[in-house]
Amino acid sequence: MRINLGEDEQPEIGLIALIDCIFFLLMFFMVATSFKQPEQHKPQKELPVTLPMSQVSLERDEAGPAPLVIGVDKNGELFLDGEPVSTQALHGRLKMEAARDPARRVRIDGDQLAKYQDIVHVLDLCQFERLTNISMHTRSAR
How far apart are CA 39 and CA 90, in angstroms? Predict the structure, then answer.
């Protein structure tokens, strides 16, 4: 026995709801997509650090090879001879330098706003590899 409930209605697609969904997706992708063009990579000539000031400064010893320069910026990023470097790469380079010359001079250029812990971390890496000829670079107060 078949029960007739009235006329069968054909399903309809809600065109207004579909248009709303399409506009929502369009806006989402427009906001989520970055329109910034990639910047040309230009080599840095100086480390992006502002050295802390010192009242007393020793004269530089220019004799011998140049020191290995490790920079720490205010965000804790590491730089080796002016180039950004990861902690693992820095550790590998320190190990290589210590094997070549255990008396190798190391200079740490720390930003005045760098966390003390970031500077101590670099010191720990140097001391772990038995590099003990370490100096800190500062600006003269004059």
Answer: 26
